[in-house]
Amino acid sequence: QVQLVESGGGLVQAGGSLRLSCVASGRTFGRMGWFRQAPGKEREFVAAIGWFIGIRNYAESVKGRFAISRDSAKNTVYLQMNNLEPTDTAVYYCAADDRGGGSIRPGASESDYTYWGRGTQVTVSL
After folding, report:
1. 3-class DSSP state of 97
2. Potential cystine with 34: which of 20, 46, 67, 102 (Cβ 3.0-4.6 Å)?
3. Backbone angles phi, psi at 65, to 5 degrees
4. What pLDDT shows up at residue 101?
């Protein structure tokens, strides 16, 4: 059974950092990513990584501040978030899909991902 379990969320002041983790059980995926949903807004893409070659894709709003990485041995994907802003406040979801992982940049659409975690709350205060 596929399971994605996120951790690492919390409350942080603006300018601070957090690292989110997502452990994938069941198998290795072709691509994994992070999405987020702020109150009253639609879920949006944050970052993704192709598992085998490591090609990354980022939303413009987080480029230069967030970094996605993976640990193949632990079947875990990370999201290092630096210089956090109050607008980064949201529930962050881990997502995974069997497709991809090669030389094509991993997708940024929800439809590119089949499996989803339950989310972890990130709150950034002023």
Report:
1. strand
2. 46
3. -115, -35
4. 80
The tens digit of pLDDT for each residue in 28-52 reads: 899 999 999 999 999 999 999 999 9
Is residue 117 within 8 Å of residue 45, measured between CB atoms? no
Residue in the structure block whose two tokens are 């290795």: 28
pLDDT tens column, 85-112 = 999 999 999 999 999 888 888 999 999 9
Q: How far apart are CA 121 and CA 116, in angstroms?
A: 15
Number of H helices, E strands in the chain: 0, 11
Q: Which residue, 58, 66, 70, is CA-closest to 21? A: 70
Cβ neighbours of residue 119 closer than 8 Å, sequence gap 6 or more: 6, 37, 91, 92, 93
- What is the token pair recorded at 39? 């109150």
pLDDT at 20 over 90: yes
DSSP 82: -
